Amino acid sequence: MSKTISAQFKSRRDAEMAVEHIVQEHGVDRTAVEVGAASGENTAGTEAARADIEDRHPKTGTDGEPALAGKVEVSVRVDDASVEAVVSSLKTYHGEIAS
Questions:
Q1: CA geometry: angle 32, 44, 3, nearest 5 deg
Q2: Measured distance CA(90)–CA(5) in Å, rounded
Q3: Which residues contact 28 (CB under 8 A, 6 or more apart)?
């Protein structure tokens, strides 16, 4: 039987890292993973990703800065045997598991 596990992330980068780990380390098919805004707002998270830092300072004045209007949600459809591994990966990358 399958179930859906969801987690919310403060940065798009953490969400993407969790997805890559789940797909590569646990063999979850990428089509079983959905990534999107946790709210109705277009967003890249609530805080800048570490990739948005130059010389230990946040980038300023760049074109196309990410909208930081809410958390990013990752949902994964998994079978019962994979639940613990997927939850662990989501938490490793700072995901807040939805109840």
A1: 25
A2: 9
A3: 22, 76, 78, 82, 86
Residue 32 corresponds to which tokens in the numbers above? Answer: 């079983």
Residue 23 phi/psi, 5-degree rounding, is: -70, -50
Query: What residue ranges do the domains of the chain occupy?
Result: 2-97
pTM of the model: 0.77
What tokens appear for 45 in the block?
């998270």
Distance CA 20, CA 50 (A): 17
Q: Residues 32-64: pLDDT tens digits?
A: 999 988 887 776 666 666 555 555 665 555 555
pLDDT tens-place string over residues 72-87 = 999 999 999 999 999 9
Q: Amino acid identity of 71?
A: K
Q: Alpha-carbon distance 90 to 55, whole Å?
A: 28
CATH 3.30.70 is right for the domain spanning 2-97 = yes
